[in-house]
Amino acid sequence: MKFPSFHNNRVCLFLLGVLIFSACKTEQSTEPNKVDEIISSVRETYAPDKRVALFDVESKKSSSSYIVKGKTNLPEALDAFKKELDSQKIKYTDSIEVLPSQKLEGMIYGVINNSVANLRSKSAHSAELVTQGTLGMPLNVYQKEGSWYLIQTPDNYLGWVDGGGIELMNKEDFDAWQTTDKVIYTNTYGKSYTEADASSDAVSDVVAGNIFSHIAENDKFYQVKYPDGREAYLLKEEADSFDEWKSKLAFTKESLVETSKTMLGVPYLWGGTSTKGVDCSGFTKTVYLMNGMIIPRDASQQINEGVLVDDSKEFDKLIPGDLLFFGRKATETGPERVIHVGMWIGDNQFIHSAGNVHISTMDQDSDDFDEYNYNRYLRTKRILNETGEGLLYLTKEDVF
Fold first, then answer.
1. 267 with 290, same domain?
2. Counting Cβ atoms within 10 Å, is residue 34 exposed (0-12), middle (13-18) or buried (19+)?
3. CA distance 323 to 158
4. Mean pLDDT score of the chain, rounded to an integer?
5. 398 located within any domain
6. Alpha carbon of 353 to those of 190, 268, 282, 378, 391: distances in Å?
7. What's the confidence (pLDDT) of residue 62?
8. DSSP label at 106?
9. Domain end marker among 177, 208, 237
10. Among 76, 75, 144, 73, which residue's Cα sits nearest to residue 110?
């Protein structure tokens, strides 16, 4: 009988050790991470829509405990998370930052300082444009990265804005700004001037919905102040006292149609919510804002508001101002996808932003019949004069 050499024994023992280690490693890697399961549950409960709520938390196993790190703007979500960890007797090290960041040193408020400010998905100009803010819009400020700030708009939308687009404020300065008398720019597009003279130099461009602090006025001009302290003049025929404008809000289907037609031809812009450029939901959002209502940002959010009017192409049920939603119906293999939105204006027509703001028809006998959107129609919702968590009325809420 031939016995294996000592060298061969060492090889066998080495290979056996590798197999045992590999087996143990595989078993450890497949063990469910209880903390990740809790994170998912809390996120689903408190922050199911990352566009409007932040619970960016992750865990890492460390010997007999876990390290949990990340950030959230929801203290109640963090409390629920910790209570669940404690109830399951899970040991952990808490490295989660509750926003706003302490590094902001109290400068946790802001106001949009340009006619339009671009809000992006990440802190870079190359990142996706997710929405816009218009001059005078108040913000919550949560975090700073370089020259960028993570902010939240009055409709709760989260995004990153370049520091040049906002004026940072502490609570005292923010409260002072909020309580000043305001002027709202009501024209589609124009300029503010250095003097009470339309031939004087421009201070900046301005768009519908821009809001300024009121200083003084004469027969033809409002004297106004920007959030950063710049002063300028606005033609009275293109603006209004904010309080007077609110008092004249009619909340009627006729006023919605009138506003929507002032934006005919405005170019399509992904992420746009101003009269410089709008995407489909940015268009409907802007139309409603100029009629005293703040509605959710995206079509997939807007469809959750109001009351159902139609889901079977019975367009005679619709009235002007109703929102039509388009996309892909739910199937056995996939959920419904809301891709597009427009606003009904009557006479079988709706107005929407696709390429530019224009009017389309659901009349199948018309030469301009919009067969493409007809075929992907989902349903119509009515939000005018309705109530809901995502609907704010400027006559009832002190937003500006």
1. yes
2. middle
3. 24
4. 93
5. no
6. 21, 6, 9, 17, 21
7. 81
8. T
9. 177
10. 144
Catalytic machinery residues: 280, 340, 352
For residue 30, pLDDT beyond 80: no
Indicate if 186 and 317 belong to the same structural domain.
no
Q: What is the pLDDT of residues 284-343, one digit of tens each?
A: 999 999 999 999 999 999 999 999 999 999 999 999 999 999 999 999 999 999 999 999
Can you give the residue range of the structural domain that contains 3? Answer: 1-29
Per-residue pLDDT, averaged over 193-202, amounts to: 98
- Report the alpha-carbon distance of residue 256 to residue 150 in Å, rounded: 32
Instruction: Give pLDDT, residue 22.
Output: 45
> Residue 209: left (phi > 0), alpha (psi -120 to 50), or beta?
left
Q: What percent of the chain has pLDDT over 90?
A: 90
pLDDT for position 31? 54
Would you place residue 400 in the very low, low, confident or very high pLDDT band (cuts 50, 70, 90)?
very high
Q: Which long-range contacts (CB under 8 A, 24 or more apart) does 58-66 make?
A: 59/33, 59/35, 59/92, 61/33, 62/93, 64/91, 65/90, 65/91, 65/92, 65/93, 66/35, 66/90, 66/91, 66/92, 66/93
Give the CATH number, domain containing residue 82. Answer: 3.30.1340.30
Calculate mean pLDDT across residues 26-40.
Answer: 72
Specify whether the CB–CB gap between 118 and 269 falls below 8 A.
Answer: no
Mark out the alpha helices in 157-266 (DSSP H runs): 171-179, 242-247, 253-261
Spell out a b/e string for 282-291, using b for 16 or more CB atoms within 10 Å of the CB, else e: bbbbbbbbbb
Place of tokens 């619709």: 318
